[in-house]
Amino acid sequence: MKSKRNTREPFVAILLVLIMVLSVFSAMCTSASAATEDEIEASINLGVAWLVDQQNPDGSWGVDYTVARTGFALVKLEDRSRELGYEPLDPAGPYYSNISIGLAYLETQKINENILGDPADKNTNGNAVHFTDEGGFHETYSTGIALMAIANSGMVTDDVQDIVDWFIKYQNPDGGWIYYPDEFWPNSDNSNTGYAVLGLAYAEAYGADIEDVKPGLNSWVDYIQNDPGVADDGGEDDPDGGSGYVSPDNWVNILKTGNLIFEAGLVGDTADSQRVLNAVDYIVRHWDDLNSDPGWRPNHYQSMYATMKGLEYLQIDEIDGIDWFDEFSTVIVDTQNGDGSWPVDIWGDSMLSTVWALLTLEKVTPPPPIPSIDIGEPNFEVPTANPFLTAGVLGIAIVLFLRRELK
Q: Does the domain at residues 35-369 carry the CATH identifier 1.10.150.20?
């Protein structure tokens, strides 16, 4: 006599498969809540239109700190032009006139300095160029951002190397930069240095010689990063791996840690370098902080931009399982004003917030270092999973399983 078949086993197996299907489908639907590509593109179009409307008749942007604001706006329009298939100074390009008069404005603001015979004079023309602002205080910020725009435009000019030569000449002994050259204040900070290095990276992509700054910058990164352990704690609870402002334990936050990652990349670090791993670990630990300092929430656009430029430059797509771009882009799209601008940032007005938001949405950085390629490892592109297709395939598998088990 045949024993009765155990009918509980197939139903237990079916239940397990159903749980698996629901878990996969739920996870996929959750990730789908991030801003879509269409939403991001619509946000960019609206934001760029608002930015273009803010340009002054003389080619500048803003009513104060106009060099820095103009430089930022130009970088945005230059990269947007390339995304649409045009070089920034192509007369057929959609933003050619805006870019042209913006660059012409920067030309009227440059300050020439005679450095004939100085070792910093890499193109041996005896000239260095820098920029200032109304108060004469933020020279490093203004000069770094202007350098970004001029180099990124592709305009053939000596200005790019001349600006680099100014940064070489006035790099501090500690390897960084401060607000302006001052022999009585030779200590650097990692906010000014962050923008100096951004300009230098754009200049290097342009073809300028920036090698003289790299040894000192490498030392600066070592110094300003808070080392794991108690050595640099300075009484803070959790600064390990992050970047300080003027010292490793001073005002550590995500914004300056993004600067540090970018600086490390420029001097040759990779995503696997220990300094970068330590910095990423700091960002992960503070990712969900509900504040704008040391975190980036709820809408600290400059912090998002600083973090994006570091991670994107080193081609780091995820940090400890966090899709940082999905989270940034979702917040940015959700907080955009109806007119295309973004709300004020902790460190900037609506115009600066808008530029930082747009640069982050389009992952705008200088070209990153070319990674080495292991030809022994084939590189296949894995298509993005469709949650409904995946659920359908698993559903078919369940039906086939049922037919077999219940015969």
A: no
